[in-house]
Amino acid sequence: MSSTIALNREAKHEYFIEERFEAGIALEGWEVKSLRAGRLNLKDSYVVVKQGELWLLGAHISPLTTASTHIHPDPTRTRKLLMHRLEINRLIGAIERKGYTVVPLAMYWKAGRAKVEIALVKGKQAHDKRASIKEREWQRDKARILKGGGREL
């Protein structure tokens, strides 16, 4: 069984990834059950700083139908990220001074706890995205040529 719960594939296309960090996340019981079932979408999520703390916004955890009747799950609620103070201060400094942003790249299980891989990123322009696509296609074609024993396409 893979420990990865969900990936944010769009982030690699939309941003230049500068630095990666691991953060814990404060979850409710029904959210943990939903994560174990793999019901998470990180596509439109991002991280904000409020009062010196990091918060994950826009991550959609779909509630299970077997959730308790006395709770009313909010799939896109704001969730607190748990990191060391020095790491948080480093991220805040980069966000405020250098114009970076922070986005989640993946969520996974580590020693029975849900962890979020977040990254310090800078946005790509349209021409940068085209260059990335062109490079990715060239790598794919190159691998196909090498695998084929030198045959041309």
Automatic annotation (TrEMBL):
HAMAP family: SmpB (MF_00023)
Localisation: Cytoplasm
Function: Required for rescue of stalled ribosomes mediated by trans-translation. Binds to transfer-messenger RNA (tmRNA), required for stable association of tmRNA with ribosomes. tmRNA and SmpB together mimic tRNA shape, replacing the anticodon stem-loop with SmpB. tmRNA is encoded by the ssrA gene; the 2 termini fold to resemble tRNA(Ala) and it encodes a 'tag peptide', a short internal open reading frame. During trans-translation Ala-aminoacylated tmRNA acts like a tRNA, entering the A-site of stalled ribosomes, displacing the stalled mRNA.
Any one cellular-component term (Gene Ontology): cytosol
Keyword Transport: no
Name of the protein described by the UniProt record: SsrA-binding protein
Family as reported in the entry's similarity comment: Belongs to the SmpB family.
GO molecular function: RNA binding
Keywords assigned: Cytoplasm, RNA-binding
InterPro entries xrefs: SmpB, SsrA-bd_prot, SsrA-bd_prot_CS
GO BP, sorted A to Z: trans-translation; trans-translation-dependent protein tagging
Species assigned in the record: Acidithiobacillus caldus (strain SM-1)
Domain of life, source organism: Bacteria
Record PANTHER family: SSRA-BINDING PROTEIN, TMRNA-BINDING COMPONENT OF TRANS-TRANSLATION TAGGING COMPLEX
